[in-house]
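Usage

Read records sequentially. Each one opens with the input sequence:
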Amino acid sequence: MTPRLVFYWSVLRHKWRVARGLLRLSGRLAWRAVTHDLSKLRSDEARGFTPHLPELGRTRYGGEEYGGMISQEGLAGAIRLHYDRNRHHPEHFDRGVRAMTLVDVAEMLADWAAACGRSPGGSLEMSLNVNRSRFSLDYAVLLLLENTARAYFEEEYDGDKQGGQPPEQA
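and closes with the structure output:
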């Protein structure tokens, strides 16, 4: 083989390996999209979350009222179960975000973005500010999350809500 063909073969082999890795990651992300928060449909979690749903929708994430509400009996137990069962929550790990994979972090950011629409005045920017101290995010991780949020979650980052609140209970 000529040196040029060897070079082309080397580039194509590299591209294949990169594609294989990216497809592996994207497959895991797709699976996470399908299975996200399925544990909330289990009776033990649903029983804890259901009575607090209207109140959760009226409470600003990260505020004093929010902190008091999530420590209430019943809800606190359901939240703990949920964290234990779902690795996209830093609380799932003893070392928090530092023990998470890139797939875990991507699901976590998408979760934070989706949750912004449930909280009055919520935005992903505000959530990142709250979670910076809540989870002791270092500067590099925070920049990665902010850059990704601006690139892929623009409406949520700026606080423009899509969708809306769930229908009121009859």
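Summary fields computed downstream for this record:
- Residues 160-170 have pLDDT under 50 and may be disordered.
- The first helix runs from residue 3 to 35.
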